[in-house]
Structure formats: C-alpha cells, structure tokens
Amino acid sequence: MALQGKHALITGSSRGIGRGIALKLAESGVNVGVHYRQNEAAANDTLAKVRERGVDGLTVQADVSRPEDISRMFNRVQAEFGKLDIFVSNARPEIPEFYQPLMDMTLEQYDMAFDSQAKAFFLGVRESARLMPDGGRIIAVTYSPSGRTGSWQPWGAMGAAKAALDSLCRYFAVALAKRGITVNGVSPGATDDSVLNGLPPEVFQAIKDWHESGWTPVGRMGTPADIGNAVALLCMEEASFITGQIIHADGGGSIMDPVFPLAIQQG
Q: What sign has the CA pseudo-torsion 256, 260, 264, 267?
C-alpha cells in the first residue's frame, strides 16, 4: 500500500472526525499518533482500534491552545516515531469555550478559538515540518464557509479562526512547496459525531433533518469516515501536485444556492 509504514499525528483524534481520520489512515498502513486533550479513555480506545488494523501508534496529551504543550507533543512524537510523514490539525475546544454571539463573547472565548485553530496550526506546521522528510503531508480540518458567511452568530470567533486557517494553508503551501510537502485543508459539511453533537439535541436534529431534506445533494449528513477518506486521498503519492487547496468533503452542500428555496432548485 502507498502509505504503508508512514507515521501520522492527528490532533483531536480520540473521537469524532479525528478518530475517523485516524482509523482510515490506519487501514492504509499508517502508524498513528492519537492526540487528546482531556479524554484519555477515548484516546486509548482509538489507539486500540488503530492497532486492530495491523499498525502501531501512541497516545499523546496536549492542550493545543498552549504553545508549550504543542512543543512537548511533537517532542514526544519525535522520540517515539523518529519522524513524521503526515500531520493533521483537527483539534478544537469544547462548545462552551467558544460558542457565543460576538456581542456577548468574552475575550477568553475569542482567544480560545484563535489559539486552538490558527495559532495551533501555525506552530504545528513549523514543528511537523522539521520532522518530515521531503514529500510530507500537512492537512487542516477547517470549515471554509466561515470565510464568506456570517449568519451562524455563535460561531463568529471560531468562524474567523477557521478563515485564518484556510489562509495559512495557502501561505504554508508556498513556503513548503520546494520540499514537496503539500499543505491543504479539508472542509467538512454537516457531520455526525462532530462539533454539532455538542449542540442541544433539538438543534442537532433540525440540522440533520435540513440536510436529509435535500440541502446536501447526497441526502445525508457526513460521517467521520467520509472525512477520513478525503484526508487519506490527499496523503497519497498521487496527490503530490495538489497543494494550497481547500477540499469540500460535504456531499455537495457547498455548491447549493442559498438565495432560492429548495423546492425551486430541485425543479
């Protein structure tokens, strides 16, 4: 297999989308560093599932909003793996730590959004690049609509941080291109077992019903495995000419026109 024997670090991979990415890469023969912030039991469970797929890995704790933790995390990966071929920046804080309309938001919530996303990626790319041979892969899990929309008010700080993340993908893609290291973003649509599950149940159900009704052309929400598939594709040798791009793994949701009712769009 093309990825057999490679080493990856995936932040926020104890559960949800990060776990989906970890398991997909493990299926492709990648040894996986499973990062967690608080839930050690979930991280150990993910690592066990990684090992069931015939590869090895490790768990590493860090708060990616803290630069010293990021440095410690990569030092641990270097000590255990010796090198790093794939870095996926996926970790996010829990909903209460950032989810608030801008006019009501505390500075701590705003800082948490940016520190855990744009700053964590900035530091993570620089740390991972020093461990990577030429031809490595760096991927950010982002949310690209954040850069052009403003209606999801409690997402304001995280949305701005994700927009900065998209921009950093492009800048780092240029900075690392001569080494053959690609830097891309994967932008999930509405995805089950994700940040959305931290919302009130009635809100999550409304989102699910909306996408199943046709807003997502494929007629369903995404799954962590769907996002894992997109990341795995970008990690393949055949994707070496794709860099600085944001790939929408959203079942077509990003191509829908919000101006017209669904009934009109569907003819």
A: negative
